[in-house]
């Protein structure tokens, strides 16, 4: 190749490179521009206190969001500015879930969920917009549901398991429910071809039957932990008991009783294990949990102190084979001065631990907090 042809080839290559670079830059600029539009729509939704406008603004944001998600880069796009939208991705990189709520009043939320599933062809994905049909469903639906018939929830973690050659995605979710109770839940997401399904017989229950999903309703004033412990490969959660025996038929009075149960995946089933903390030997004083980091806008692993309850101790919540809702004995924080920490310090530490273990996803209330009236002197 002579010098003239070489220069000509380099010139053509340079033109093609600049053309590709300009297209890539333009695509990135358009993505950023679209995200700014999304953020404005989301900010508008979050700012309004007019209940009549909330569904309108939500539909406007969702329509714009769905339009953006149709873009090839959407599956891996971070959406860092959408801080009140939950975003989780399966560890196999095949599923991405966006979920958010709109609070209309203390007893009613609009739940939104969009699921992306990668196709075999590189750079392409299917989009599923789940429709909240909770008004037409029982409170605890037992059947398999699809994208057009959904109970409504926020999802904050996803754990994939395999059964044969098929992959099933276990979802950890949260429902604000009403003024009296909240719910944590476990469900199974799977696909038959391109058809989305929710609910698969995989969870062992206390009576030995197998359920398609699990609902854990508890008092609104209590904080319940439901998390996947990667080190133990178990879904660990608070055991719930009524505040008093007379309240056993009313789930809004159920609270954590300081013991823990778990689900471990064994031979195609999430097998229920009771009292996993209370009956285990004392191990590390710390454990890792998944929680939402608002600064990074993603789910991260953090270490927290683990309180171990000895089965031989007098304050264990499991005694004589039964669970009881426990409170801290008065002498532990109002003793005769022998306690190493004051009541105030214990209260601060307890509140810190509670915040670390509470719901790890994203929830948002449009109602705001009521201002306290000042007392006249």
From TrEMBL:
Q: Where are stretches of biased composition, namely Polar residues?
A: 312-322
Q: Which domain of life is it from?
A: Bacteria
**Record's signal peptide:** 1-26
Which keywords appear in this protein's UniProt record, sorted alphabetically? Signal
Q: Which residues form a coiled coil?
A: none
Composition bias of kind Basic and acidic residues appears in 323-333, 341-358
Q: Where is the composition biased (Basic residues)?
A: 368-377
* Region of interest (Disordered), ranges: 306-377
User: What is the native source organism of this protein?
Assistant: Lishizhenia tianjinensis
Q: Tell me what this protein is called.
A: Outer membrane lipoprotein-sorting protein
């Amino acid at each position: 190749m002579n010098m003239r042809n070489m220069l000509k080839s380099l010139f053509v290559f340079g033109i093609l490179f600049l053309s590709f670079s300009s297209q890539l830059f333009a695509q990135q600029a358009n993505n950023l521009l679209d995200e700014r539009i999304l953020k404005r729509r989301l900010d508008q939704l979050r700012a309004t206190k007019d209940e009549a406008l909330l569904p309108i603004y939500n539909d406007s944001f969702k329509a714009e969001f769905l339009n953006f998600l149709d873009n090839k880069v959407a599956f891996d796009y971070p959406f860092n500015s959408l801080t009140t939208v939950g975003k989780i991705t399966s560890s196999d990189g095949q599923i991405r879930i966006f979920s958010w709520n709109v609070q209309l009043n203390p007893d009613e939320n609009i739940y939104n969920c969009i699921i992306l599933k990668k196709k075999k062809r590189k750079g392409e994905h299917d989009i599923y917009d789940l429709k909240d049909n909770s008004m037409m469903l029982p409170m605890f639906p037992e059947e398999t549901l699809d994208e057009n018939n959904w109970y409504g929830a926020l999802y904050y973690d996803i754990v994939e398991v395999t059964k044969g050659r098929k992959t099933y995605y276990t979802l950890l979710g949260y429902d604000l429910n009403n003024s009296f109770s909240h719910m944590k839940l476990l469900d199974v997401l799977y696909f038959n071809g391109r058809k989305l399904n929710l609910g698969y017989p995989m969870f062992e229950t206390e009576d030995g039957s197998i359920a398609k999903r699990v609902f854990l309703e508890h008092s609104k004033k209590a904080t319940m932990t439901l998390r996947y412990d990667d080190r133990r490969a178990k879904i660990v959660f608070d055991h719930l008991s009524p505040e008093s025996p007379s309240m056993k038929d009313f789930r809004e009075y159920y609270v954590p009783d300081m013991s823990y149960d778990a689900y471990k995946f064994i031979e195609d089933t999430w097998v229920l294990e009771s009292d996993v903390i209370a009956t285990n030997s004392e191990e590390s004083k710390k454990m890792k949990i998944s929680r939402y980091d608002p600064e990074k806008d993603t789910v991260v692993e953090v270490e927290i102190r683990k309180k171990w309850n000895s089965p031989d101790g007098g304050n264990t919540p499991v005694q004589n084979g039964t669970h009881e809702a426990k409170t801290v004995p008065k002498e532990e924080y109002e003793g005769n001065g022998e306690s190493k920490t004051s009541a105030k310090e214990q209260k601060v530490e307890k509140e810190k631990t509670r915040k670390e273990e509470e719901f790890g996803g994203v929830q948002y209330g449009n109602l705001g907090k009521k201002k306290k009236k000042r007392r006249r002197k």
